[in-house]
Design a protein that fits this description.
Mean pLDDT: 90
Distance between the termini: 36 Å
CATH superfamily: Spore Coat Polysaccharide Biosynthesis Protein SpsA, Chain A
Strand content: 15-25%
Number of strands: 9
CATH architecture: Alpha-Beta Complex
Number of helices: 9
Order of helices and strands: EHEHHHEEHEEEHHEEHH
Number of domains: 1
């Protein structure tokens, strides 16, 4: 179903060791949804060299970001290289704590079909991680994609081939200086890519929704975190959007 919609690559950012729970979660989730994918983990800290990091990052990156955050960002960049190398029309990129809301394949196919009408060079956020949603007043019937001026993090998104090419070309003269979630905002501001939000979003990050512990933060899986997430999600998705 996905390949028929032009989604020709599915990449999951993952650490080489220490995150067996996330690996098992991804394998089970994607098998249940009959999704073929590949882990991208060659940005692991064990493989860092000065030459490697200087190709993509500012010289002082190790004093700016923790190793795990650098690794996460580097693996996302490696995903873009895979998209270009494999000439994927569209690709899905996930972090390894993703959860699906509803029929993922059906929903992402609808997004890809609508994306066929967009100008090349884009990212479409599929997640609700920071609980940002389009204003109620901007919603239109039978429309699932809305242009946005900021990122919704980098836990789950669709990128087109031109978008990946644009980012890699930009990197040649503008090295990455922060975590991928924030760097995406620079890519938007500098018009490297156009950002869109899928609405309603249909993925969540387990490190945010309380169902998993975070891989690069101190957030732990707790009932209280889950309650907080559900409360905030209800308020921001169904109440506060009426006042924007």
């Amino acid at each position: 179903m996905l390949k028929e919609a032009g989604i020709e690559g599915v990449y999951v950012v993952h650490a080489k060791k220490g995150y067996e729970m996330q690996e098992a979660h991804i394998k089970k989730l994607f098998a249940q949804n009959k999704l073929e994918f590949e882990f991208v983990s060659d940005g692991d800290p064990s493989l860092f060299t000065e030459e490697l990091l200087s190709k993509y990052f500012i010289p002082e990156i190790k004093s700016v970001l923790r190793q795990g955050v650098v690794s996460l960002t580097l693996n996302q960049i490696f995903c873009y290289e895979n998209v270009v190398k494999n000439k994927n029309k569209y690709a899905l990129i996930f972090e390894d704590d993703v959860f699906f809301l509803g029929d993922f394949s059906k929903k992402v196919t609808e997004i890809a079909n609508e994306a066929d009408h967009l100008p090349p060079g884009f990212i479409i956020s599929l997640e609700n991680t920071n609980l940002r949603f389009p204003s109620v007043w901007k919603l239109k019937k039978d429309k699932r994609i809305y242009e946005a001026s900021i990122s919704r993090c980098a836990g789950a998104y669709l990128i087109d081939l031109q978008g990946a090419k644009n980012i890699l070309e930009y990197l040649k003269t503008n090295k990455c200086f922060t975590v991928i979630d924030l760097w995406m905002n620079t890519l938007i501001t500098d018009k490297v890519i156009t950002m869109y939000w899928a609405h309603p979003p249909f993925t969540e990050q387990g490190s945010h929704n309380g169902l998993m512990s975070a891989t690069i933060s101190s957030n732990k899986r707790t009932t209280w975190r889950r309650f907080q997430w559900l409360s905030q999600k209800f308020y921001k998705m169904y109440i506060s959007r009426w006042f924007k």
